[in-house]
Amino acid sequence: MGYPYRSKVLDRLGVRSWINARNWSTVIGGTWIDDRVLEAMNEVAKTFVDMHELFAKADGRVARLCGVEEAHITTGTGAALELAVAGCMAGDDYGKWMRLPDTEGMRNEVLMPRGHVIAYTPQWTAPGARTVEYGQAGHLRSFRGELESKISESTCCLAYTVSYNTVPRGVVPLEEVIEAGKRHDIPVVIDAASDLPPVANLRKFTDMGADIVCFSGGKAIRAPNNTGFMVGSGRGAEIIGYVRDHTFPHSGWGRGHKISKEQIVGLVVALEIFVEEGDSLYDEQYAAAEYLVEELKGVPGLEVEIIPNDETYHEHPVMPHVPRVLMQWDAKEMGMTAEELDAAVARDDPPIFLRNVHYYNYYTDKDWRLIDTFYLRPPEKVIVAERIRRAFLGAP
Prior knowledge:
Blueprint: H1 8-13, E1 19-21, H2 35-44, H3 51-66, E2 70-74, H4 76-90, H5 94-99, E3 109-113, H6 122-125, E4 130-134, H7 143-150, E5 155-161, H8 174-184, E6 188-191, H9 201-208, E7 212-216, E8 228-232, H10 235-246, H11 261-277, H12 281-296, E9 303-307, E10 324-329, H13 331-334, H14 338-345, E11 352-354, E12 367-372, H15 378-393
Parallel strand pairs: 1-11, 3-4, 3-5, 5-6, 6-7
Antiparallel strand pairs: 2-8, 7-8, 9-10, 10-12
Helix pairs in contact: 2-11, 3-11, 4-10, 12-15
């Protein structure tokens, strides 16, 4: 039997269908979508709807699922961050929304820990804001004083990123950032795009006192890749209400973040499934990791172990609960570098993406790769194990 998840449409376009052993990543298509979500999207695609009514009802459903006062569905986490910052700057002022990204005279400074400046930082400034950095990557000695010294009449929000992309050493305590926000009456906005599962994280940060938290729909939730949402309570709920009242389907700067009725419904149904089933997936994923270790441990010179990412042992202080298999080896002894392994497992049909970021062993010079189990379906874990064994052993 051939590979069951091969796409005929991609075949017709001359594009390969890959096995995802890397985890969610927009550059490899984000996620695969549950049939129940696709059915809902297909159903709503055949009718029409008042988008204002759909937003009000769908946002309300998301808020209830997340245990917060307010929510708003967006075109990805990046858009959620942009819209949240715009809400902090423009509030309920129609004139200010209509002239974005011109923010002259507005509170337009986003305070950000220096160790949180990552590839997605431009999203914070897209509505016309500017970032103001504080702290020193690597230790906490000066961050409190620097944060206080940077707060001014121009500060619109305090930014915080909960992600494995941030500096792992000397993490600025979120609790203290939230306290500073309360002390100075400044909203705290969090980028938590990739910090799911567990399901409890949907309300963890708002329960801590953060005003607005932004999540991805197209990662662990398995909604369409270009969906996301923001949640909030208290002051954050008020700001989210302003965002909904002044962006798509309304006119002005926010209209550029247009989202379809199919995407909105897909996000809601996927979130419903995630809240009900998300945490139960871990055991199945861990069993896949155990299978991979058993299949690969017989390869001479290859060290394999499970990184559970379960708060007992993880790749980074901030990791979603997804078990991964770590492979390490001496490239000279094995005659293969990590890059050559990538090429070897991508050579045949179906090609395979391995995880090649966010793990660094600073204490040896061994090459490494990770096998992520989140998207591996039963036939795929068998293909991954066989392909890696063949790459190292040179078997036909």
